[in-house]
Write a structure and sequence with these properties.
284 residues, two-stranded antiparallel sheet, 2 strands, 60% helix, 9% strand, elongated, disordered N terminus, disordered C terminus
Amino acid sequence: MTPSERNPGLSGRTGGSEPAHRRTFVAALLLAALLANGCGLAQWWHDGFKVGPNYTPPPAPVAESWIESGDRHLANSPALDCGWWTAFRDPVLDQLIDAAYHENLNLQIAGTRILEARAERNIAAGDLFPQTQNALADYAHAQVSKNLGLPLGGTFDTWATGFNASWELDFWGRFRRTVEANNATVDASVEGYRDALVMLLAEVATNYVQMRTFEQRIAYSRRNADIQRGSLRLAEQRSNKEAAPISTCGRRAPIYCKRSRCCRRSKRAAGRQAIGWPCCEECR
């Protein structure tokens, strides 16, 4: 007689223990995987249950103070007003700054990028909530004609309502990481707008100061040309009164030099400022 025949329950107990061994083996594999990824789980918990490491700004050594902070002529207190161009007390410059601020297209594009970045950030934040919501409502009214001779005559009213929502839980922090990235994009677009504004105002003020500088140089050149013409008239009058004629070629040359210099400065101002500066009257 075989052992199984002597103990009929032996084969049943042996076969029933195989699922238990499998479950134990699977549990052991899961435990080994968790132990192997223990550092990853700890990092995931440390990062606020979000995949990937948190952003840390790169090291950027910066001096504690400006190079000229020790100069007693410079004020270390924060600026009370950002309108630095008003220190020149020039109403024309104030009008140019105001027009550039309200009408410059590049600055408007930078401002529109801020709105775009904020809209994308709001869309990303919306994924944290149920992504799909459906509300259903239905009403049906039916009336059976009495001419049919049916026992169930009369009217019937049917109401039906329902609600459906699908929500992907942000278990690994994918949506939260997307919101963080969009927040950084918003901050970058804001700084880009500020950079464009600073460059715009600086260019307007620089070009305006250069234009005024060339205007003053042209006025000086015209005044010098008038002085040279007066000297030429005196020399010509003296030459007419005296017996020996006096050469005035040496006096005419500085006048022509002043005229050509005035013309060059006028054209340079026109080229720099693109305002179509006309040539001076003396050089025509």
